[in-house]
Amino acid sequence: MKVVYLTIEEVVKIHEDMIKETGGHPGIISYGNLDFTVNQAKIPKNIERIATTLFYGILTSHPFIDGNKRTAISVLETFLEENDARLVAKNEELWNIVHIVSEGKLKFEEVVKWIKEVVKW
Hints:
Elements: H1 8-22, H2 31-40, H3 47-61, H4 68-82, E1 86-87, H5 91-102, H6 108-118, E2 119-120
Helix pairs in contact: 1-4, 2-3, 3-4, 3-6
């Protein structure tokens, strides 16, 4: 299966659209963090690790002024959709994971394991 990667421009557009829909302040606080996250996602060969790199990277590096959590979820869902997969986690579980990761209480490998459990291919 050929992986469809997201570009920086696509991630920024996802963020901008999400801010327009749900409110908040648009803008990038650290283009370097965003660039690093998106390009790091091109390194793993395993699709779950690619998805985790995007999700975890946005949650932990906070590249945007506002809406990093919402953007991380939207980017994860978009990446999965582009690669013929979908997230099946319940909303409460998803937001619980988002908060735990953003607080630095969940390691990358634990998120990879969770992604494997909640993604249907």
